Structure formats: structure tokens, C-alpha cells
Amino acid sequence: MFDFNIVRKASSDYPKPADFHPSYGTAGFRSKATLLSSTVFRCGLLAASRAILLNSHTGLMITASHNPVDDNGVKMVDPNGGMMPQSFEAVATELANCEDDDAVVAVLRDRVFSPMSSGSPRSAAGGALTVLIGHDTRPSAPSLLAAALAGVRALAVHAHSYGCVTTPQLHFLVHSANQIPAAPLPQLQSYFDVIVGAFLELTKGGELEAAGAGSNSSLLVVDCANGVGAEQLGKLVPALESLGVEMQLRNTGRGGGQLNYQCGADFVQKDRLLPTEMNDVPVGSRCCSVDGDADRLVYFSPLKGGGISLLDGDKVAMLAAVYIRDVMELLPAELLHDIQVCCVQTAYANGAATAYLQNILRLPTVCTPTGVKYLHEAAHNADLGIYFESNGHGTVLFSKTFVERLKAMEDHPAAKELLLLSQLINQTVGDAISGILLIEFILRRKRWTLQDWQALYTDLPSRQLKLQVADRSSITTADAERVCITPAGIQDAITRVISGFTHGRAFVRPSGTEDAVRVYAEAEIQEQADELARLVARIVYDMAGGVGPRP
Ligand code: NG1
Ligand code: ZN
User: Fold this and answer.
1) Ligand 1 cavity residues, CB under 6 Å
2) Pocket test for ligand 1, best of 293, 391, 467 (most atoms within 8 A of CB)
3) What tens digit of pLDDT does each residue of 291-307 get?
């Protein structure tokens, strides 16, 4: 049983900086690393509290993903390996904002424990409950890890650090730790056993290897963003070799390169540029980029004369959707009875991708607000939910019902194949490692080059901009962020501008991770998309109190 006096005392080692007001946003807490010790300590308390209240292991991931190296952040992982429920975010924010140790204890006692436990928190089941912790490669990781450990231990819950692991690995481990009560905690190796094991099973036999010859280069160049992906991706080399794929890792952090600086999935997707240290990669090569914590993945190919041909999260979703449709067509009709397939996107999905989904694949689609927690939830409502943000974060979720049906018909080759896919694809969150294996498998299976994949549909030219305004919360949206509600009159102004562009589409929304308003525009040709984005940014600047030079 724990003692709130111990919590109060431990908390005094991690005072909150004055004027620091963190908020649990789209991706947990994020800020300059130097400000975060109290926040991470308190997340340790919260993760331990949830472990006690739910009588399960929980998780904490210390990372700021694709943000600059001086930032850091922390995300909570629930016992099922998913993200902490949104209903808990307000309490997390309240706890992180407590001005002193008494307030920390009061929030914990009155807001965290009382409402969920009717006054008496359960004890930590023999002390076996554990908070599983992972972190990325940031230099601030060790001190923030110490804060997290102190927070967890203040509630007499065990803490286990997996060290430098990817965000999806930590989610996977938390999920598997809760599968068998009282079993020892899973080793990191179990992640590779499941995911690579399924990949090897799917690709076994010489047929796939032969399919690659001539149709696709054996070389795959991976930009690791100088992040945690480098070490973990290295472990895939033998598996990919068995498929005839030679994986070369770049921006591994070992050459002194900076995390996410001119490299990584976010840089490649937003700036459409070749990552640093990759100028020697031959034109047309198959390349991909992961982000700093390896939960995002985009593919690309260097073009003649510079630039890249990008295959973003939308293209990954379409590749998965096409392949899954092919396999499902082979399944017996009774297995598919009442099975709902759905593809989830956000407003950032390219208009051409949405049109391809609806008109060619004829799959039901859903649009949610930005942030994987929304997409994940929507995908969960289907039996087979495909969700990817354009930035490359996403996965494919299989419902329990569907998996059970597939298991019952495992003798059918297509059922077996889908079952293996449900193991190859991380079911807890988007995962760049699992994504690379999935894409390499599908390309080989379909005998497609990157060019074949790219040709599924042609992206409408688009442009993303961001600008600062006095108070970004003055901008509010509706209809999955596609319509701006305030400031009054802003949507009319945006709609008027859009009407002057062929295939024009644009929207604005406040970022959940940065102090900025994001503008997205697409149109028939690139110059028009650029111009539309600029005009919309100007409207935001004028109507929402822009800061700095007018766009
Ligand atoms: P914000 O800053 O709210 O736009 C960004 C990404 C999201 C999501 C989160 C979390 C874009 C336009 N937005 O959110 O998709 O990935 O970061 O990492 O890419
Ligand atoms: Zn990330």
C-alpha cells in the first residue's frame, strides 16, 4: 500500500518551473526538455496510479518523436497497449500543472483515485504491478527516465526500463505484458519473435524471392532520422535478406548526425526533400524514412536533378488496402459475412487518395480530426480498419471477431495469410519497423516497383504552411477540422478564395503539438496549391492576429 506522504516528499525533488503550463495534447506532453522533469515525474505517478486502479501493467514512453533534439515529451500507455483514454487527459494536464506538492497529492487522491475506486484504491497486487518505460535517443532521456522512475516508485509500484526502444515496441510490450497474469515481463526479443516471425512465415518458400528478381531493386535505403530506429532496424537485416532485400541504414546517429535534423519521415513528408547523407543514393532507388521514435514511415525515391518522388501515409494506406482486398477476395463468402472494412483518413489525406478509395476501391471511408488517437478509435469500430495519417503514422487493425473467424479457417491459405498479417502488423499503434516489413512483403508479392505503387493514383499538388497568431485557440473547427468556426467569418473568406481554384481545397487548424496554425491547400497544379495556401494563410493572419511578417 502506498503512502501519500512519500509522494509529497518525492514530488519535492521535481518542482514545476514557474510559468510552465503543459497540456496533454495529440501526442502526450511535449516541450523543451529542460522544463519537463516535474511533468515526467507526475506522469510516473499517473502511470503507477492507473496500474493500481486497473490492476494491470501500464507504460510510459519518453520521446518527442520528430521534434528537434532539444525537445522531449512523455506519453502514457494503457494496459491494452493503446493510448491513455482521452477522458483521462484533463486529469493528466491538471496534475502536470499543480503548483506545489500538496496540490499534486490532492489531485492524485481526489481526482485520480477517488472517482475510479470509490474511495479505496486497490493495493499493488503483491507489488508485482509494473510500469514499463522506454525512451528515445535524446540526450535528455537519462534524467527524465530518473524522474519517471521516481514517480512510479513513490506509489510503491515497480518500474522496468527497456532503455532505448521505439514507441511502438513499448506499446507492444505493455500489451503483451498484460496477456498472461503473473507471467514474467516480456523481453524486447518477443516483439521481433512475433513480428519478424510472421514476416518469415509469410515469405517462406522461394516463390517470393524469385518474384523480386528483375522487377525490383534488391536495395532498400533507410533513413533512420538519427533516432532510435537505427539500432532496432538493424535487427531486421537477416529477415529482409531472406527475401533478397539488402537493407542499408543511413542517418543512424553513429556519424554524429543530429536527431530529425534534415532527415526523418517528418522532414521528407513535409519538405519533400532528400534527407541529408543520401546524396549518393542512385536515382530511382527504393528508400524510406522513419521518424525519431520510429512510429512513422514514408517511402520515396530520389529523382533526376534533385527532389524526390514521395509515397506518403496515404499511399501506404492504399497499398495495404489494395493488397488486403486482393486476399479477401479469395476468402470463402461465409467468413466475410457482416465483416466491415473501413479506411480512416484525416483532412490532410490527399484528395486523389480519397477519390481512389471511394471510386476505385469502393471502400467505406471515415474522416476524423488529426491525431492518431482519433483515427485509431475509428478504425477499431470496423472489423478491419486501415488508418494512416499522410505523415506516415498508422496501422491496420483486425477485430477479435475477424481474427477468431480467420483462426477457425486457418487451413484456407487466404485466411492463414490474413492471420499472419494481423501478427506482422503492430496492433497497438503505427510502427515503422512492422510497416517496412509489410510494404516489402506486399511489393514483392505483387511484383511491384515503387513506380508501380506510385502509379495507383496521382497526388493532387498540395502545400502545407504554418504561421503564428496571438492565440491559436481563437481558431476553432468542426466537421473533422474541415470547417473553421471561429473567428467569425473566416470560413466564408476561405471558401471564397478556394472557389477561384480548379480542384481547390484548403483548411486551417491550430496545431496540437506546436504554437502554430497549420494551413493545408491543394489544387490542380503546384503553383496554384502554393498560391492558395498563401492566400489562406493571409486570411488567418488578418483575421486571427498574425505574428511576424504577413504571408
Ligand atoms: P499537429 O501539430 O497537431 O498538426 C502533428 C501531426 C499529426 C500527428 C501529431 C502527433 C501533421 C499535419 N500533424 O500534429 O498528424 O502526427 O503531430 O505527432 O502532420
Ligand atoms: Zn513519432
Assistant:
1) 26-27, 65, 348, 370-371, 389, 391, 393, 511-514, 518
2) 391
3) 999 999 999 999 998 89
Per the CB < 8 A criterion, the answer to whether 444 and 452 are in contact is no
Q: Is 479 left (phi over 0), alpha (psi -120 to 50) or beta?
A: left
The domains found in the chain, sorted by start residue, are: 4-187 (3.40.120.10), 200-311 (3.40.120), 314-431+443-454 (3.40.120), 462-543 (3.30.310.50)
What ligand 1 atom has the least distance to the C-alpha of 348?
A: 12
Span from the CA of 510 to the centroid of ligand 2 (angstroms): 19
**Residue-wise pLDDT tens digits, 140-185:** 999 999 999 999 999 999 999 999 999 999 999 999 999 988 889 9
What does 53-81 look like in DSSP terms, one character per residue?
HHTS-EEEEE--TTS-TTEEEEEEE-TTS
CA distance 534 to 343: 31
pTM of the predicted model, to two decimals? 0.94
Residues 67-117 have pLDDT tens digits of 999 999 999 999 999 999 988 999 999 999 999 999 999 999 999 998 665
Q: Ligand 2 centroid to 204 CA: how many Å?
A: 31
